[in-house]
Amino acid sequence: MATIFYEHDANPEALKAKTIAILGYGSQGHAQAQNLRDSGYKVIVGLDANRPSAQQARADGMVVVAPDEAAKRADWIHMLTPDETQAAVYEQYVQPYLHPGKILGFSHGFSIHFKTIAPPDDVDVVMIAPKSPGHLLRRVYSEGRGVPSLIAIQQDSSKRAHEYALAYAHGIGSTRAGVLQTTFKEETESDLFGEQAVLCGGLTSLIKKGFETLVEAGYAPEIAYFECLHEMKLIVDLIYEGGLSRMRYSISNTAEYGDLTRGEKIVGDATRAAMKKTLADIQDGTFAREWIKENKDGGYNFAELREREQQHPIEIVGAQLRGMMSWLPGQQAKKPAEAPKAEIKQVVNA
Description:
Elements: E1 4-5, H1 13-16, E2 19-23, H2 27-38, E3 42-46, H3 52-59, E4 63-65, H4 67-73, E5 76-79, H5 83-94, E6 103-106, H6 110-113, E7 124-130, H7 134-142, E8 149-155, H8 161-171, E9 179-181, H9 184-199, H10 201-216, H11 221-230, H12 232-250, H13 253-266, H14 269-283, H15 286-296, H16 300-310, H17 313-322, H18 341-349
Parallel strand pairs: 2-3, 2-5, 3-4, 5-6, 6-7, 8-9
Antiparallel strand pairs: 1-9, 7-8
């Protein structure tokens, strides 16, 4: 079982005299920077002054300086740029100012575990990884609560790396919920596996194949969309609230029996074997090397894959149906006549 740390385990004063530089101001960057500031920590954000995110950071009341200046001034440098850009950002802006005694922080272990970044031995290297999107991290903190985080220590040059990391976790609000001990290896490999096999890759493929099966059998694409995608949120919310048992308690007996007798037939031993192969590719670095090469080559294959997925019939049908859902953010209800069924079916059957 993982060791879990809470408020009473943290010493926030350990970082109160230090300057924390957040490099990046996206989903995690904006949330962590603002939470740390509101916890009384000294925070600067390292961004190119001309980037829209820099303008947003200033509007949020953050101190914004150039990335190299941030790295120069900071005692703690926290890398929150995308995995594929971190090595370049580190080499250009961080490495020249990573002097002995400084702390290099991450919220995902990819760059350290797969050695695209190799810090010197005389700095602390730590990870605090919130287990939620940034907007949720910020909202829950503002409500006086917190979301769980993972904590890992890769290098402990100061012999206080764990204390500093736990103080950082306290600053973003995570000790209110619980901070779980892990390693860079465990976080990186399990995170990539979860994304590829279940949360993103596995889920989206399951949804699309269910949709395609119904449409190919002659069912209306609109009905297939609702059954295989739209209602997914209802089920996932129940699982999120109380696990599989909560979901099964809430659905009909017919649905539960179908779940228990047919689920393993759909996602069974063949899927498990594919998952093991996916995990092996993560563990031995195959996926990391592929992803690094993809970006070095210009990301053209990635762009083609994105474009192909955007043209999938489920996306076309979904965009039109969501236009009828006034409760969704940015949507206004449309009359059913405004959703051209003939056009939808033409696309699906193409």
